[in-house]
Design brief:
The chain is 43% helix and 15% strand. By secondary structure, it is α/β, with parallel strands linked by helices. A five-stranded mixed β-sheet has the order 2-1-5-6-7, sandwiched between helices.
Length: 247
């Protein structure tokens, strides 16, 4: 007599073994395209909700999404993911400071960034934040970033521009883009189609380097420091590592 497991249709068995990640991303281009590239049939499902803005608005949108999906409850007057939720809920956003001068940043915006992360964590939602931009995670695939030296995203884009202009083994189509006199990573390679065609393939074999470099940046800051002071820093490696553990 067949085992009960054998009587279950294959599609249902596969569904039971799939781990689902729900990612509420700030932007509509790079972050969604990047994380969807990790999806593997019968292993990992990546559900991306795009355009959820940054900081507190992102967290509010995440909580509203979870409430709509029946994932949220209120305990002691606080929103909290329900016990036993098997879906992995992550909020993904950047600091995106308003000035290249670290001394002229509005303290209220700094506090909002840190408080948003604290609020998410209290509700059981993980945050893959970056300070100053998601592109810091992309840059870490190619080179070290000096720990503890405050960096605005303009520096990150400048380095990525130089790297992709000189990157080896470019296709003729990619070389036509990076070889332009006015080539700039932010302008050209943040487009969805170009990012997928020309950036993603260059990241795969460099992923472990990025993880180690992100950990090195993370290690500089202690648990007593507010999140807005952790620059340069990104927690994207924590989300990536979590996804990879199920693939």
């Amino acid at each position: 007599m067949p085992d009960a497991w054998d009587l279950i249709p294959q599609t249902e068995r596969d569904s039971d073994n799939v781990t689902t990640f729900i990612l509420l991303c700030e932007d509509t281009v790079n972050e969604p395209s990047y994380f969807r590239s990790f999806e593997k049939s019968n292993k990992v499902k990546i559900n991306v909700v795009e355009g959820q803005l940054s900081s507190f608005k992102n967290i509010v949108n995440t909580l509203q999404y979870c409430e709509k999906e029946g994932l949220l409850e209120i305990i002691d007057n606080h929103y909290q993911l329900k016990p036993g939720i098997t879906k992995h809920v992550w909020s993904v956003f950047d600091r995106d400071v308003e000035s290249v001068d670290a001394h002229s940043i509005d303290p209220a915006n700094d506090m909002q960034f840190s408080f948003s992360i604290q609020s998410a964590q209290k509700a059981g939602i993980k945050v893959a934040w970056s300070n100053d931009a998601f592109e810091l995670w992309i840059l870490l695939h190619f080179e070290d970033v000096e720990p503890g030296l405050w960096r605005h995203r303009t520096y990150i884009y400048e380095r990525l521009t130089a790297i992709f202009k000189a990157i080896p083994e470019q296709s003729a189509e990619m070389a036509a883009i990076t070889g332009r006199e006015n080539f700039n990573y932010k302008i050209f390679l943040k487009r969805r189609s170009y990012f997928v065609l020309y950036v993603l393939p260059k990241l795969l074999n460099r992923r472990e380097y990025a993880i180690q470099r992100a950990k090195a940046l993370e290690s500089v800051f202690n648990a007593q420091q507010p999140y807005h002071q952790c620059n340069p820093c990104t927690k994207v490696h924590q989300l990536v590592t979590s996804i990879l553990s199920f693939t």
